Amino acid sequence: MSTYKLTYFNFPALGEPIRFLLSYGGVEFEDNRIEWSNWHQIKGTTPLGQVPILEVDGQVFYQTIPICRFLGSKFNLLGDNEMENYQIDNVVQTITDLRMKIEMVNFDKFSPPNVIEEKRAQLKSESIPFFLKNLEDIASKNDGFLAVKKLSWGDLYFAAMIDYMNWMMKGNLLEDFENLKKVYGNVMEIDGIKSYVEKRPKPQMG
């Protein structure tokens, strides 16, 4: 039996889709949650000076999306053909683009407060509806799933990232998107993920 060790901060963000996938797969894994104060001691030991990293039987994997795709393959969460795998990659990249736009505003330490508020207002009125409408239209064709007409690793990635983006925006981004709410709800009712969410440590989210 393989051994898994995930190293990331005690924070959802880029580590949480991996935690969701490992929990879905029903495998035991070491959830190595590092503190910000210890990061400088660990940074130099990672391949790119960043986390998350996943160790599987001692082999190091890095970069969130490739790790998720790798675990999707192990846990039978890929598409059935090349087109379906493209569709999964497409929605994952769309989610990632939105997440990065929100992060640029949420973690902006240089702009004055009034400028940040203007940027947050623009996110709420333009960027977030634009990206989520695209995903809503895709999900409307897929019977409660996001990318294809069955559960895929893209659904788990989406649910984990929505929680993170909700926190950054201090609200429910899915309020007006019924099909995306179904996708999110279906993921959160999966036994392994539901159990993980109930037991996970309280994150340090600032």
From TrEMBL:
Catalyzed reaction equations: RX + glutathione = an S-substituted glutathione + a halide anion + H(+)
Similarity section = Belongs to the GST superfamily. Sigma family.
* Ranges of residues in domain GST N-terminal: 2-79
Pfam families xrefs:
GST_C_3 (PF14497), GST_N (PF02798)
Record note on quaternary structure: Homodimer.
What top-level class of enzyme does the UniProt entry assign? transferase
The molecular function GO annotations come to:
glutathione peroxidase activity; glutathione transferase activity
What is the top-level taxon of the source organism? Eukaryota
Q: Which InterPro entries match?
A: Glutathione-S-Trfase_C-like (IPR010987), Glutathione-S-Trfase_C_sf (IPR036282), Glutathione_S-Trfase (IPR040079), Glutathione_S-Trfase_N (IPR004045), GST_C (IPR004046), GST_superfamily (IPR050213), Thioredoxin-like_sf (IPR036249)
Its lineage reads: Eukaryota, Metazoa, Ecdysozoa, Arthropoda, Hexapoda
Q: Which GO terms describe its biological process?
A: glutathione metabolic process
Q: Could you identify this protein by its name?
A: glutathione transferase
- This protein's species is Chironomus riparius
The residue stretches assigned to a coiled coil in this entry are none
- Keyword entries, A-Z: Transferase
Q: Which residues form the GST C-terminal domain?
A: 81-205
EC number(s) on record? 2.5.1.18
